[in-house]
Amino acid sequence: MKVIFEHQSHPSGLGFLVKEYVQDYFTSPFHFHDLYELILIRKSYGKLYAGKRIMNFQDGDIFLFGPGFGHCFYNEQSFIDSGEKAHALVVFFREDFLGPGFFDNSGYIKVKELMEKSANGIQVRQTEELSVLFGRLVTQHGMDELITFLRMLHHISSMNTGNLAIMNESQSLVKLTNRDSERLEPVMKYVIGNFKEELDSKKAAELMHLNEASFCRYFKRRMEQTFSQFVNEVRITHATSLLVTEQWDILRICYECGYKNLSYFNRQFRQITGHSPKEYRLAFKGAEENLVMDSRED
C-alpha cells in the first residue's frame, strides 16, 4: 500500500483549493496531505481505509481529514464494472488560510475544535445546505468561493455530535514508511477486490515475495493486526452495508461476504461490531444513516 505525501497548492497562492474529480474509479493510493481535506462523494461506493479503520462509503458521504491523516478510497469491483464514473468534490485548505492564529479567536472556537478533531478523521452527515454549498463551490471564484467555504465550515462546526462521527478514537494510528506501504498495496487490493472468495495468506505472501510465515509476522507488525483479522474486518464492514440496504436473510449475507459458516460469521460480526447481525439490522432499520464502524474499541 504505497503511502504518498500529496502537496496541494492553489495557483494563486491562496490557502485553500477546490477540486472536482470524475474518474472511472478512484485511483489515489493510500496517502496523506499537509492540508485539511473536506470531501463529498457525489457518486461512488466501496471501502474507505482511514487511519486504523475500514468502513463503507457511498453516494453522499462527506469526510473531513486533518493533515497527516492517511486514507484511501477503494472502489468495489461491482462499481467499476457498472461503467459509472466516480465523482467527488474536494476542498483542500491550510489551517492559516485566513492568516496565522485566526481561528484562535474565541468567536471561532468551534471551527478550531472541529479542525483538531479531524486529526482522527470525521464523517459528516450530509445536509441539504451542505449539498447546496458544495455545488456552489465548483462554479465560484475569488471572494464568492471563500464566503461559501466559510459558510461550510460554520455549518459543520455548528452540528451536534450526533452528526459528526470520529473515525479513529485514539491518536495511535497505523504509521507506515513508503517502503512498507508500497509492499502492502498489492495485498490490500487483493483482499478488498476478492473478499467474497476464498482468501489465501500464501497468495498474499507471494504478492510481497515472502514466505507465508515471514509475511504473517510482517503484516502483523506493520498493520497492528493479523492478516485474518484484516480480512474479517473487510468482510464484516461489507456485511454491515448489506444488512441495512438489502432484505436478504442472514445466511445469504454470510455467504455474500465470503463466509462458509454461519456460526463463525456471527462470532466475527459480534466481535467487531459489538452486536449480532440481527441486532445490528434492527438498530439501523429505517435509519437513513451512513455506516461508520465506531463501536469497536481501538
TrEMBL record:
Residues 185-283 form the HTH araC/xylS-type domain. This is AraC family transcriptional regulator. Gene3D superfamilies: Homeodomain-like, Jelly Rolls. InterPro entries: Homeodomain-like_sf (IPR009057), HTH_AraC (IPR018060), HTH_AraC-typ_CS (IPR018062), RmlC-like_jellyroll (IPR014710), RmlC_Cupin_sf (IPR011051), Tscrpt_reg_AraC-type_HTH (IPR020449). It comes from the Bacteria. Keywords: DNA-binding, Transcription, Transcription regulation.
